[in-house]
Structures are given as C-alpha cells and as structure tokens.
Write a structure and sequence with these properties.
This protein is an all-alpha fold. The protein has helices at about 10-30, 45-65, 75-85, 90-115, 120-135, 145-155, 160-205. Helix 2 (about 45-65) runs antiparallel to helix 3 (about 75-85), helix 3 packs across helix 7 (about 160-205) and helix 4 crosses helix 6. The longest helix has about 45 residues, at about 160-205. The N and C termini lie far apart (about 50 Å).
Length: about 200
C-alpha cells in the first residue's frame, strides 16, 4: 500500500483494487454459505506484542529494500515477506524456509520456460494455468502452492529471465528476513515472560 502511489495509480485507486475483491469475495462467501476458517488458538498477549514489533520492523525493512531497486517487481520483497510473517504461531521459521525454497524453485521454473520461443499470449496462458494450480493446492500443508504461484506470477506478468531471477532473489531476501525476525520475536517473548514472572514474584513478596 505504501509503495503503490510510486507507480502509475493513486493511493485511492490502489485501495479500491484491494477493497472491491474483498467485498465481492465476502458477499459470495455469505451468499453461498461458505464455511469460515477454523479459529486459531490464542497465542497470548506477550507473543502478540513481540510479533507486532517484529512485523513492523520487517515491513519497514522490506519497504526500504524495495525502494533500493529500480525494478517493476520491487514490491515482491514486501508482499513475500508479509506472506511469510503472517503464519500461525510457532510455524514461521519452517514455513519461511520451505515456502521460500519453493518460491525460488518456481522462479527457476519460470526462467527455464522463458527460453522456449513462445508468443506472449501463450506465456500469459501458461502463467494463468500455473496460478490456478497454485490456488487449487493452497489448502495443502506443503509448499507446492508457492512453487506454482511463483512461476505463474512471473509468466503472467513479466515472462523474462530478469523478472524470474529478481523474484527468486526477492523470495530469498523475504525468507531470510522472516526467519531472523522470528528468532528475534521468540527472544523478545521469552524476555517479556521473564519480566512478568519477576514482577509477579516481587508482588508476592
């Protein structure tokens, strides 16, 4: 959202681009009686505070990294980080590792496809096919969805070797950032817990 106005669209247009699909999807889900996702178990206030701090640092860092590159896919660093950082508690490092590797493998797949002499329209069709497969595999616990989605995004939007390599690099940067901040968040949560216990003991005395 923050780097969107730097492109061709205004902040209002970008907001509408996010809001309209959200409203349409919500109305369709309500009209069709689709079941909601199962509620996540609470992780505790201390985890929430530590994770919020880590997420804020990660978003700021990924945005700054995005600004350093004059590339149409610069926003991939930020969006890929958000996907890695918003996982269930206790799963960030494992998911960041495997989805990061899958995303890079998807970028490599797209890079190999770009060497095939195809008309631009066929690259778009292939990209849409990969995206549909990725969406279909999304509920599965493995990282196959990330592989297909990554290849699909490159082929459907920018079927070039440069874009594929850039997306692979963006996936690596986002995954490393998410893993490092996950460790930092765990340390901060542990420190908050020790502080709470120390204050509790002091109150009892």
């Amino acid at each position: 959202m923050l780097i969107g106005p730097a492109g061709n669209g205004s902040a209002l247009e970008l907001f509408a681009a996010y809001l309209v699909p959200l409203l349409v999807g919500s109305l369709l889900a309500a009209g069709l009686g689709a079941e909601a996702l199962a509620s996540r178990p609470p992780a505790g206030a201390r985890y929430g505070r530590a994770h919020a701090i880590a997420l804020a640092i990660g978003l700021s860092t990924s945005i700054i990294l995005s600004w350093q590159f004059d590339h149409p896919g610069a926003h991939w660093i930020m969006t890929l980080f958000v996907v890695r950082a918003l996982g269930d508690p206790g799963t960030h490092r494992k998911k960041a590792l495997w989805t990061g590797l899958a995303t890079m493998l998807g970028a490599v797949t797209a890079a190999l496809v770009t060497f095939v002499p195809l008309p631009p329209s066929l690259f778009t069709v292939l990209g849409a096919l990969f995206l549909l497969i990725g969406l279909r595999l999304m509920p599965l616990p493995d990282a196959k969805s990330s592989l297909f989605m990554s290849a699909g995004v490159v082929l459907a939007t920018a079927p070039t070797l440069d874009a594929a390599l850039y997306r692979g690099g963006a996936a690596l940067a986002a995954s490393l950032l998410a893993i490092m901040l996950s460790y930092a968040s765990a340390l901060l949560t542990e420190r908050l817990e020790r502080t709470r216990l120390a204050q509790g003991d002091h109150d009892e005395i």
